[in-house]
Amino acid sequence: MNIGITCYPTFGGSGVVATELGIAMAHRGDDIHFISYALPSRLNILHERVRFHEVTVTPYPLFDPYPPYTLALATKMAEVAVYEKLDVLHVHYAIPHAISAHLAKQILRSEHLKVITTLHGTDITLVGRDESYLPITKFGIEVSDGVTAVSQWLKDETAANFATQKPIDVIPNFVDPERFKRHDKSAFCHIFGGRPDDRLICHVSNFRPVKRIMDVIEVFEKVTRVVPSRLLMVGDGPDRSRAEAYCRDRRLRDRVFFLGNVPNLEEIVGASDLFLLPSESESFGMAALEALASEVPVIATRAGGLPEVVDDGVDGYLLPIGDIDGMAARAIEILSNDQLQRAMGRRAREIAIERFDVSKIVPRYRELYERVIAGAPVG
Ligand code: GMT
Predict the structure, then answer these.
(1) What digits encode the pLDDT tens for the residues 182-205?
(2) Is 151:310 a contact under the CB 8 Å cutoff?
(3) What is the largest distance, in Å, between two alpha-carbon atoms of the chain?
(4) Does residue 13's CB lie within 6 angstroms of at least one atom of ligand 1?
(5) Atom 5 of ligand 1 has which residue's CA nearest to it?
(6) Whether the CB of 341 sits within 6 Å of ligand 1
(7) Per-residue pLDDT tens for 124-177?
(8) d(CA 184, CA 31)
(9) Is the pTM of this model over 0.90?
């Protein structure tokens, strides 16, 4: 099958899922064409069946300050669809990608090309709910030939907030357990100036307000008073400066490390003893799944789709949003009991493999493509 994939190429869960999906499908024999304004950040392999098509927006004084990316993307999608004989355009994140894909179909007047839209979360819960985007998001969903959501929670939110009857397939995110697995932590304790038995706590996100990274720091502050530990903050984004300033003021700089968007994410996550994800909302929580697959228990909030990923009391704990004391108490409970930490970690990996192994989830997308192409009912 010839498949076009469009996503946001920068760091972020939807781009990660789109890229990993494309790579996995190429390994299974499909031809994959990524179409975006930059090379997706996780697209770091050379594969004969993977191509990248860059979208450039021709500058023109009248376009300042709003260059029409949506239109340039639609034009590139139509061009690639013709020359590469695409069967499917699979867009990740509804806005503006679903609209560009619909336009590409219109440009080509094509019945052959099918558009699949995968909803990831903030495209529905934040951006899509904004009045200025709601009607166009709803339109993008309704004109797609197939729609998927990464959790049941997101499917329900979409139906409720957009008052749409559009059938939506729930296909959860996935993880490659060969890549995300336990790693030796001894080297990391040394790098971060700790002792070998110090605990490593990890957080990975885009440091946007929805991630509540100040909660991560406050939980850590309480934990480190009881259990000697280091906090590894992976990622970057708008709340980083505030969090770093707080750590400087509270003299936490020797224990909290802001690492940025590291290339060796799996080593850092896999060397950690605990993962914190205290988000306000999370349609799925890809970072939590990668931690679980790496045998790292997760403490997260009971928000959005997180209960579909983390089993409360089994491979981590779920607490109310903003419950710093509760999260700190659970973190101390796990980190001061080796046996509990290891048992939760082992169960975490088993569950991640049972439910979210790449080899189980990717075929579900492939089946959806086939159903849509055959004109069979979806959802
Ligand atoms: O987490 C973000 O803010 C980035 C966002 C994205 O679209 O890149 O992530 C969303 O999609 C991920 C992949 O499906 C999910 O794992 C995240 O839970 C979801 N983020 C939110 O719902 C806040």
Answers:
(1) 998 887 777 787 787 899 999 999
(2) no
(3) 65
(4) yes
(5) 13
(6) no
(7) 887 767 888 899 999 999 999 999 999 999 999 999 988 888 999 999 999 999
(8) 36
(9) yes
Burial class (CB in 10 A: 0-12, 13-18, 19+), 187: exposed
| Domains of the chain with CATH codes | 2-174+358-374 (3.40.50.2000), 186-356 (3.40.50.2000)
Go through the chain and tell me how many residues it has: 379
How remote is the CA of residue 46 from the centroid of ligand 1, in Å?
26
- Specify the ligand 1 atom closest to the Cα of 284: 18
199 CA distance to ligand 1 middle (Å): 27
Whether 272 is in the pocket of ligand 1, judged by its Cβ within 6 Å, is: no
